[in-house]
Specification:
The protein is of the alpha/beta class and 388 residues long. It is built from 10 helices and 19 strands. Helix 4 crosses helix 5.
């Protein structure tokens, strides 16, 4: 498919994609004697938020196992579907070359749903246009995308009554965000969900929705039926599931999958009462004077300030401490707040060593990857020399 697709129903890009495939030579020969469950099926790229994107190879079993798990947890197994009712209209606001896009497309084909695509890069106004025009009933988004839609000046005048379900994934979900979504999309009060997973695990491995999510607003949910999740002594989340990748293309010795078959996710977390809580990224740690600081923890605290629309916390080199905490803050356009005020707010929320010493009050939206996450590499590279 072309990297930019017009906002059409799924049938149009399907036809153009088929024509494209007929013109392109096959990259791999067709398997002889039938396909095996462990034969490579698709290569999907990781998000590349803090490093270069990697090419994850998913087998036939990866795709099938993950889809079956999603159908089960969402109540869409064949015997659970009412054939007399029209299928869902799904808005796919993320790129098709990431795992979320593949999942949405496969689910639509299995269940007879309609998929609506955005044109070009993510745009909050276009999302609202498409939701109204196409009467979207299901929307999957990264929290940053949802936040930008909620901040759009035309939100209050839009007809969002068709939306019944919103699924959030790809980053930590703040309770404040879910409350705002329930208010803006009144028919999703029971249909708001959060999912946890990644390309390396083949997609979703934990989820929460409805009363479970309302009672435990910071959780990423319970493991899906075929997924095992545990926390190793360092605090890293390990996952083992039939849906996980075979490995990275061209990197057979990456070490991401250990000898017992556990995928080392690079995420930090904990398990309480059978529920998974994600606390940050092992690679997104700032080491200040020997103290490990999770960027996600600092970001979560700063997002509680009413003037803060978005924030990204990164490490800045320091000759004495090794690294220091730096925060790029996107403020609400109508707000007026100083660095001194933000520092005092942070001191009331965080231990002293976690309070940012470098601040950048950004007058524009933070840079995003194609997957809808803040691009911290680009942000760090463009950091101003003096505090702003």
């Amino acid at each position: 498919m072309r990297p930019r697709l017009s906002s059409h129903r799924s049938s149009s890009p399907m036809r153009s994609g088929a024509n494209c495939c007929q013109r392109c030579p096959s990259a791999l020969p067709a398997p002889q004697g039938g396909a095996d469950e462990n034969d490579p099926a698709v290569i999907v790229f990781t998000a590349g938020t803090t490093g270069d994107p990697k090419a994850a190879v998913l087998a036939n079993r990866s795709v099938i196992a993950n889809l079956h798990s999603l159908l089960l947890v969402s109540g869409r197994l064949p015997q659970q579907l009412d054939a007399s009712k029209p299928g869902a209209v799904i808005l796919q606001s993320g790129p098709l070359f990431h795992i979320g896009g593949i999942q949405a497309l496969m689910l639509a084909m299995l269940c007879g749903h309609t998929v609506v695509f955005l044109e070009g890069r993510f745009d909050a106004g276009q999302v609202l246009d498409v939701i109204e025009r196409e009467r979207v009933t299901v929307w999957g988004a990264v929290p940053t995308m949802a936040s930008r839609v909620l901040e759009h000046p035309s939100l209050a005048s839009r007809d969002l009554s068709a939306v019944r379900s919103i699924s959030l994934g790809g980053a930590a979900v703040q309770p404040e965000l879910t409350a705002r979504l329930r208010a803006a999309f009144p028919n999703t009060k029971r249909g708001l969900s959060t999912i946890y997973g990644m390309t390396e695990t083949g997609g979703t491995v934990a989820s929460a929705s409805g009363e479970l999510m309302a009672a435990n607003p910071r959780t990423s949910g319970r493991p899906t039926p075929v997924s095992e999740i545990r926390i190793d002594p360092s605090g890293e989340i390990l996952v083992r599931t039939p849906g996980q990748m075979l490995g990275y293309w061209g990197q057979p010795d990456s070490g991401v999958i250990d000898a017992e078959g556990w995928v080392h996710t690079g995420d930090l977390g904990r398990i309480e009462d059978g529920l998974l809580y994600v606390t940050g990224r092992s690679k997104d740690i700032i080491i200040r004077g020997g103290e490990n600081i999770a960027s996600a923890h600092v970001e979560s605290a700063l997002l509680r300030h009413p003037a803060v629309r978005n924030v990204a916390v990164v490490a800045r080199a320091d000759a004495d401490l090794g690294e220091r905490v730096a925060a790029a803050v996107q403020l609400d356009p109508s707000a007026s707040v100083s660095i001194e005020e933000l520092t005092e707010f942070a001191r009331a929320q965080l231990p002293n060593h976690e309070v940012p010493t470098d601040w950048w009050l950004v007058g524009h939206e933070l840079p995003m990857t194609d997957a809808g996450k803040v691009d911290k590499r680009k942000l760090s590279a463009s950091w101003p020399q003096a505090p702003t």
